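Lab meeting, item 3. Inverse folding demo.
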């Protein structure tokens, strides 16, 4: 049989660097041929060989109501018939801002952009403009998109500033970024004690989804809020992944601690390019045209993307949506844990709302160094074993995965049975 995926990958590599438009899609860390997807519906995606997969990538988060939900498609179709982009304000942009503000009360005002990267990049600029300070804190293992000052790895010691983690980023651009350890309260306290008056903001994934799933401790969350308040720094929750994914009100509704600014993406666009940053009115007033912090976008608030987002936000507010999503996700991780234990595999799993992490380790990791010790070879076996049997996960051991409302209890059980088979093959 001709392998269309392989043919397309070879063709793509001639005209697109690495054959992909976002690096993780290239299967670099797991090996093998990426699946080229031709169609998605509900809990499934189909590749170019016409093979169907139960999908736990969910477009890396947006597909919370299931792929190609008929109501979302209809909303997109209706919006498209009225024109694809105007470069002028529309009523639907107000409606979605009102809707998000209702669900996430710390977001008093927001601005729409087209990607999570734009949202975090601008939130950082805004925090710097608002405070008049340059230095920022991020945490190792958190990903906030690919803007220069956030592509940073930890320096050699505490209070040494980060080094660029990407070629092409001048060290001068990252010299103001401090990279601290997630869940390390003492380090955070020490940093604020020494540099508090110079720190513009702390940006954090309030549940991390980019080093697999990592939860913050309660003390860590409290310390973040208390220290930023005490030192006049802006606390930014990057909820691009967790927003409307872990709960209707995002991670902040679970932590019970509101940030000053929030960034969002993924779910709010329902699969279309839409993201946002927002928060306290006083801070948002610093953005152009009201204030001196510049930000703009030709396609910002695109009417078709906003239509998809509004319909998605409507569906997720229906009774029982998050209860079901959470239950299905727990059913999945509990089934995986039991299947692994029965086969003597070092494995654990965790979930929050519709987001989950699988760890080939004997405990749930607390930070990046801990996560980096997990068994990536075991993950590779698991990943390919599942893929060959028709279940798709993200091609990396360090990414969270996602359940959608279209994943029925039967689909979850089918997935667990397949995982049991894969764990069995790994235990031999
Ligand atoms: C927490 C977080 N912030 C920011 C981003 C960047 O978003 P985008 O890929 O839309 O630029 C991502 C992407 O995965 C993310 O997970």
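The presenter then showed the designed sequence:
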């Amino acid at each position: 049989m001709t392998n269309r995926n392989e043919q397309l990958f070879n063709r793509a590599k001639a005209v697109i660097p690495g054959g992909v438009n976002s690096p993780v899609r290239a299967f670099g860390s797991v090996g093998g041929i990426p699946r080229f997807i031709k169609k998605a519906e509900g809990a499934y995606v189909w590749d170019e060989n016409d093979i169907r997969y139960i999908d736990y990538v969910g477009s890396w988060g947006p597909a919370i109501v299931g792929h190609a939900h008929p109501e979302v498609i209809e909303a997109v179709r209706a919006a498209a018939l009225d024109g694809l982009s105007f470069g002028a304000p529309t009523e639907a942009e107000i409606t979605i801002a009102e809707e998000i503000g209702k669900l996430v009360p710390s977001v008093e005002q927001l601005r729409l952009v087209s990607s999570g990267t734009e949202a975090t990049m601008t939130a950082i600029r805004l925090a710097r403009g608002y405070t008049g300070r340059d230095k920022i804190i991020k945490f190792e293992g958190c990903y906030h998109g690919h803007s220069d000052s956030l592509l940073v790895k930890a320096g050699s010691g505490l209070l040494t500033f980060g080094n660029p983690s990407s070629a092409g980023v001048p060290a001068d651009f990252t010299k103001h970024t401090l990279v601290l350890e997630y869940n390390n309260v003492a380090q955070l306290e020490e940093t604020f004690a020494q540099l508090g008056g110079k720190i513009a903001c702390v940006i954090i994934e309030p549940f991390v989804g980019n080093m697999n799933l990592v939860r913050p401790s309660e003390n860590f969350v409290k310390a973040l809020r208390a220290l930023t308040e005490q030192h006049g720094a802006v606390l930014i929750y990057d909820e691009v992944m967790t927003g409307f994914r872990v709960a209707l009100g995002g991670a902040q509704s679970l932590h019970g601690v509101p940030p000053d600014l929030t960034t969002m993406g993924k779910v709010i666009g329902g699969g279309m390019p839409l993201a946002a940053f927002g928060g306290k009115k006083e801070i948002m007033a610093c953005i152009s045209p009201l204030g001196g912090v510049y930000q703009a976008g030709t396609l910002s608030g695109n009417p078709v993307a906003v239509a998809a987002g509004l319909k998605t936000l409507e569906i997720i507010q229906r009774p029982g949506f998050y209860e079901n999503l959470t239950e299905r996700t727990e059913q999945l991780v509990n089934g995986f844990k039991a299947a692994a234990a029965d086969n003597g595999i070092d494995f654990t799993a965790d979930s929050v709302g519709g987001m989950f992490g699988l760890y080939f380790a004997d405990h749930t990791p607390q930070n990046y160094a801990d996560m980096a010790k997990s068994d990536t070879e075991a993950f590779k076996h698991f990943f390919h074993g599942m893929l060959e049997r028709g279940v798709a996960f993200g091609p990396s051991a360090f990414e969270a995965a996602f359940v959608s409302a279209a994943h029925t209890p039967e689909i979850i059980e089918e997935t667990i049975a397949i995982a049991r088979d894969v764990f069995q093959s790994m235990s031999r």
